[in-house]
Design brief:
Number of strands: 10
CATH superfamily of the domain at 1-82 and 162-172 and 201-255: P-loop containing nucleotide triphosphate hydrolases
CATH class of the domain at 1-82 and 162-172 and 201-255: Alpha Beta
CATH architecture of the domain at 1-82 and 162-172 and 201-255: 3-Layer(aba) Sandwich
Largest sheet: 6 strands, mixed
Order of helices and strands: EEEHEEHEHHHHEHEEEHH
Structural class: alpha/beta
Radius of gyration: 18 Å
Shape: globular
CATH topology of the domain at 1-82 and 162-172 and 201-255: Rossmann fold
Length: 262
């Protein structure tokens, strides 16, 4: 798998009958190794859209393809082995930190686990836990903060070395400074991996916080299930009134933020 993703006239309705679609005529392409951000207000359809890629749901109309192949024609276990996903609500188990991170890659070495945790900005707080990586996490991570839970989930997604990495608002509980470090570390990791056996990953970032998406190769703005604008941060500042409104409401002039060199 190379990781080229295409949405071709995709619509989706939870009832499956086509009435009141959550997504309407969605079309775009993500080239292998690129980073695309999905931005929009609550209820715009962002999470629904990316959940069509691993087939948590199937499209009502149109099709989703990876490397030109309809995802419905791929074996489900093969498809999902190619995808690393971290959600806003991290799902953790009553197990050690180590076993939570290597859940999808149980044969991973300690060096690989630590490298994934470092990229996810989790290594430092894990080292400070009572038994470090051997600390037992309470059910659903009750003894960790929301941001710590999310970073462990991101480390787990990275460890499987996916061809497609989906971060679904998975840094919402992380402060802006830590998130910036995390994004820098991910950029560096994926850049280095392009010349390795892994080959890097196509990255999809779903966010409500605009600071998360500034450096994406492409930003897709969703509103009420439709794409209202698509382009880079600087292009959208010039062409999309909705993007401008979101930007100004969250950041003001935003000149101090990573990647905004206007």
């Amino acid at each position: 798998m190379q990781g080229k993703i295409a949405f071709e006239g995709v619509s989706f309705n939870y009832s499956g009958n086509g009435s009141n679609p959550v997504l309407k005529d969605i079309s775009f392409i993500i080239e292998p190794g690129k980073t695309v951000a999905i931005l929009g207000t609550t209820g715009a359809g962002k999470s629904t859209l990316i959940h069509l890629i691993p087939r948590f749901y199937d499209v009502t109309a149109g099709r989703v393809t990876i490397d030109g192949i309809n995802v419905r024609d791929l074996k489900l276990d093969f498809l999902r082995r190619q995808i690393g996903i971290a959600l806003q609500e991290a799902i953790l188990f009553s197990e050690t930190v180590r076993n939570n991170i290597c859940y999808g890659q149980p044969q991973a070495s300690d060096d690989e686990i630590i490298a994934a945790a470092q990229a996810a900005q989790a290594h430092e707080f894990i080292k400070a836990l009572p038994q470090s990586y051997d600390t037992i996490i309470g059910q659903r991570g009750v003894n960790l903060s929301g941001g710590q839970q999310q970073r462990i989930a991101i480390a787990r997604a990275l460890l499987v070395k996916p061809k497609i990495l989906i971060l679904d608002d998975s840094t919402s509980a992380v402060d802006v400074e830590t998130e910036s470090k995390l994004q820098d570390a991910l950029d560096q990791l994926l850049q280095q991996s392009r010349n390795s056996e892994w080959g890097g990953a196509t990255r999809i970032i779903v966010a409500q916080r605009i600071s998360t998406v500034l450096l994406a190769d492409k930003i897709i703005v969703l509103d009420k299930g439709r794409i209202t604008a698509m382009g880079t941060h600087h292009e959208l500042l010039s062409t999309s009134s909705l993007y401008q409104d979101i930007y100004r409401s969250q950041l003001g002039d935003g000149r101090h933020l990573r990647g905004d060199q206007r």
